[in-house]
Specification:
Blueprint: H1 5-19, H2 26-33, H3 37-49, E1 53-55, E2 61-63, H4 65-87, H5 96-103, H6 109-119, H7 136-141, E3 145-146, E4 153-160, H8 165-174, E5 181-187, E6 192-197, E7 200-205, H9 206-209, E8 212-216
Antiparallel strand pairs: 1-2, 3-8, 4-5, 4-8, 5-6, 6-7
C-alpha cells in the first residue's frame, strides 16, 4: 500500500474527530479537512480499498488496525514537532499546530527517534493535549470539564482545541492558555459566560468556552 500525504491526512482527521467525541461520516471529513464532498467520496473509496477504514451501513467511518497505526504514527510526530517548536525554538504556542501540520509528513523515523531522545516520551503538547487520542470521556474521568460547564469558582486551564489558529490567538489575547488560572464569575442569559483572568473581567461566548478543558481547583 502506498502511503500518500492525502491518505495520512484523512486517517489522522478520522482519529482526531473521534478524540473530540464526534461520529465520523463523510460530511465530518469534508468539514474537518475543508475539502469538497466529491473529494471525500473518492478518498473513502481509496481508503476502503487499502483496508484502512470500514464504513458501516449508516455511513459511519472507523479505522482498521492498519489505518489506526498510520494515524497514530502521524499524531505522534505532530505532537513531537509541536513540542520541538515551543521547547527548543521558542515559537508561540498558538502558531505551532499549523507548522506541525506541514512538517509531520517529512519527519523520518531517525529524526523522530532523536526528538524522543531530546524531549522525552509522552508529555503534553503546547495546547495541553496528551500524545495520541484522548476522548471527552477520558478527560471527564480525570476530573476535567469544558469551561462552559464550570458553574462557579476557580479552575486551571488544562487543554485547548488546537485546530483553529484564530481562536487560539483570541484565547492567548484573553490570557486563556494551558496552565492559566481563571475564575467563573457568571453564566449569562445570552449564552455567554463572564470570567476573571488576571484580575480582569472577561466575557466569552459558550461555543468558544467549550473548546477549553479546565480542572476545578479547591
Amino acid at each position: 500500500m502506498r502511503i500518500t500525504i492525502s491518505k495520512e491526512n484523512y486517517l489522522k482527521a478520522i482519529a482526531e474527530a473521534e478524540s473530540e467525541g464526534q461520529i465520523v461520516i463523510a460530511a465530518t471529513l469534508a468539514r474537518w479537512l475543508n475539502v469538497s464532498p466529491p473529494a471525500v467520496t473518492m478518498a473513502i473509496k481509496r481508503l476502503k480499498r487499502d483496508n484502512c477504514i470500514v464504513v458501516d451501513k449508516d455511513g459511519q467511518i472507523t479505522l482498521t488496525h492498519d489505518g489506526r497505526e498510520i494515524a497514530t504514527r502521524l499524531l505522534n510526530r505532530h505532537h513531537l514537532i509541536e513540542r520541538m517548536l515551543t521547547e527548543i525554538f521558542g515559537m508561540e504556542w498558538y502558531k505551532v499546530h499549523e507548522e506541525a501540520e506541514q512538517l509531520e509528513h517529512a519527519v523520518s523515523e531517525d529524526f523522530e527517534r532523536r526528538l524522543v531522545e531530546r524531549l522525552g516520551p509522552g508529555g503534553v503538547c503546547p495546547h495541553g493535549n496528551v500524545i495520541g487520542l484522548d476522548t471527552p470521556e477520558e478527560r471527564r474521568k480525570r476530573g476535567w470539564l469544558p469551561l462552559g460547564d464550570l458553574s462557579k469558582g476557580a479552575a486551571q486551564v488544562m487543554s485547548v482545541f488546537e485546530r483553529d489558529r484564530q481562536l487560539l490567538e483570541y484565547f492567548d489575547g484573553l490570557g486563556i492558555r494551558p496552565g492559566a488560572t481563571l475564575q467563573m464569575l457568571s453564566q449569562n442569559y445570552d449564552d455567554t459566560i463572564t470570567l476573571s483572568i488576571d484580575g480582569r473581567s472577561v466575557p466569552l461566548g459558550r461555543a468558544a468556552a467549550n473548546k477549553v478543558w479546565v480542572e476545578p481547583t479547591h
